[in-house]
Each structure stands twice: as structure tokens, then as C-alpha cells.
Design a protein that fits this description.
Strand order of the largest sheet: 1-2-6-10-9-8-7
Strand content: 25-35%
Largest sheet: 7 strands, mixed
Number of strands: 10
Shape: globular
Distance between the termini: 24 Å
Radius of gyration: 16 Å
Length: 219
């Protein structure tokens, strides 16, 4: 097996969810122990995605206006749309920890840490909530509101796909038409709502680079 290398960052621009989902699975099907890991940065048109075992009852009034796609990631229902950073992590966890496999829980922790670090660069304080993957605002008028979501598929061979979304400057109304991640009444915010004016392209690149950095360290 090859020694660990930094993931390649790929910018897909604006891309259809269905075709991107198919491409992730095809990439993972075809990869070998020598395949380089990749991070795919993408912006999607409005779409709701359902995790394995998701309860369609979490789609509320208004949700019929937006396409719904069943996926094979973990988690419940979430929303992707313009103004949101989406990064898919196509990784082989077996080779991303010195001396052995990087376990899924550690992988999630590192992804969440990268999001927290990027928010901090914009003077925003995000935090984890036990038992609820993603990042939430730690204080202020929107304390407890969700700003980033996380959903992964980890195959038995340690290869991953799907990833994270961070809300930058969005139309937030579609979040009110679902129970985000299965939580009724959960407020969802973006960086603009909590006072950070940021260009989507800047946050896309910063978060991808921070993911690469955190995944390569013991942080």
C-alpha cells in the first residue's frame, strides 16, 4: 500500500446532485489501494437528501417544491442549495492514521474540527453537540442553531464518500420545510445571518485546505 498523500482538491463548480452522487459511488467502486484521496468542492441546486433509514415524515409542508433524493449516507434529511459549501471526502481511512486505520469517529471529529477552525477565522464560535453530528452556534442570539451538517458513507474496506455542508449565504427558507437532521424546530443559520460576510469561493477553498491540514495531523 502506498504511503499517505495529501488529498487532491477538485472544484466541480455548480453540479447536479444526482450525477455527483453517482460519480462518488463510481469513483469509490473503481479505486485501488494506490488511488489518491480526493476532496470534491461543489455547489448544488436546491435538493433535499435522505440518509439511510431517514423518516420521510421529516419532510414538512412546502418541501414538495424541491426534489428529494434517497442516498446511502448516514443521517436524516438535509438541504443543499446555492450559497452553501459542500465538500465530499473520498478517502481511504486505512492509510490516514500513522500505524493504522483512522476510525470513523475520529474522522468525523477531524471534519468537525476543520469547520470549527474556519468559522473561528471569521470570528464565529461553533461547537459540537453530543449525539448530533454537525456544528452549532455556541453563543449569541442564535445559540444552538445549526450552521453545518455532516453525513458520510464508510464502506467495509474503509473507503468513504459523501461529506459536509457549511451554510455561507443562502435562502434559508427550505430548512423550515423540513425537520433538519430529524430535529423538529431546529433553527438553521448561515454565516451571513450570524454576522460574517464571506465569499462562497473563499470559504470553499479555506475549508478544503483546513480539512487537508487537520486530516494530516494528530489534531
Amino acid at each position: 500500500m502506498t504511503s499517505p498523500t495529501f488529498p487532491e482538491i477538485k472544484h466541480l463548480g455548480q453540479a447536479d446532485y444526482d450525477s455527483t452522487f453517482a460519480a462518488m459511488r463510481a469513483f469509490t467502486d473503481a479505486r485501488t489501494p494506490d488511488s489518491r484521496d480526493e476532496l470534491w468542492i461543489v455547489e448544488h441546486a436546491p435538493v433535499y437528501t435522505l440518509g439511510l433509514g431517514a423518516d420521510r415524515g421529516h419532510l414538512l409542508a412546502g418541501a414538495t417544491e424541491i426534489p428529494v433524493v434517497q442516498t446511502d449516507r448516514g443521517g436524516e434529511v438535509t438541504y443543499h442549495g446555492p450559497g452553501q459549501v459542500v465538500i465530499y471526502l473520498l478517502m481511504d481511512l486505512r492509510r490516514n492514521k500513522p500505524g493504522g486505520k483512522l476510525y470513523a469517529r475520529q474522522f468525523v471529529h477531524k471534519i468537525e474540527q476543520a469547520i470549527i477552525n474556519v468559522l473561528q477565522a471569521y470570528n464565529l464560535v461553533g461547537e459540537r453537540v453530543e449525539g448530533a453530528p454537525g456544528i452549532y452556534m455556541a453563543g449569541g442570539d442564535h445559540k444552538g442553531a445549526k450552521i453545518a451538517a455532516l453525513g458520510l458513507k464508510v464502506r467495509g474496506n474503509g473507503c468513504t464518500y459523501h461529506g459536509l455542508s457549511l451554510n455561507v449565504a443562502m435562502d434559508l427558507a427550505p430548512f423550515s420545510w423540513i425537520n433538519p437532521c430529524g430535529y423538529a424546530g431546529l433553527e438553521t443559520v448561515d454565516m451571513r445571518t450570524v454576522g460574517a460576510q464571506a465569499k462562497l469561493s473563499d470559504v470553499q477553498q479555506q475549508l478544503a485546505e483546513e480539512l487537508v491540514r487537520v486530516l494530516a495531523t494528530n489534531e
